[in-house]
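Q: I'm a student working through a structural biology exercise. My instructor gave each of us a protein and asked us to get a predicted structure, then write a short paragraph describing it. Mine is DUF4178 domain-containing protein. I'm not confident about reading structure output yet, so if you can add a plain explanation after the tokens, that would really help. Here is the sequence I was given:
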Amino acid sequence: MGLFDRFKKDKREYDVTDMQVTDLDRGFVFEYDLKTWQVQEVYKYDWGDHFFSYEYKISSGAETRFLSVEDDDELFVVLSQKSNIRKIGEDLPELLADEKPPKKIEYDNKTFFLEEEAPGYFCNETKSKDNWVELISWTYLNEDEDEVVTLEQWGEREFEASLGKVIKPFEISNILPAE
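A: Happy to help. First, here is the predicted structure for DUF4178 domain-containing protein. I'll explain a few features afterward.
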């Protein structure tokens, strides 16, 4: 692969007459849950073996959320919001720092089971496409697999958490590209 092939591969193409959730990019707007959302930032995750996923910081004006889109044979779309990790589990940072993630988490009268532990790299494409940061992500799903707790470790002692719900790709509608 030559240098210019890399640039071609990074540029996503889409059909404006048939926009999909996988086509989202900075400035795009869409409808979800009777609100109009705009993509403010685009994040890319490299999970190795040429597997990538995207996350979008979105705003409805009054609310800011994150929309994760993973295409692994089928689309897995999660709408989430950041949370304080200690609200989810008081001792979670210490367990994760000791490389002992719990197999399940009790939160808000629900049980979430560890689905996946994934080391990877993160890039905020809105700011720079060449600045990658290492992370570890743990994904927990409830029994119905429609709610998600995600824990992330950045560096040795920085941890973040988010709470989300799995949504169907068709729930994202009226996608329009940025002007």
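A: Here are two points you could use in your paragraph. The radius of gyration is 17 Å. The chain has one domain: 21-176. It's a good idea to check both against the output above yourself.
Q: Great, thank you!
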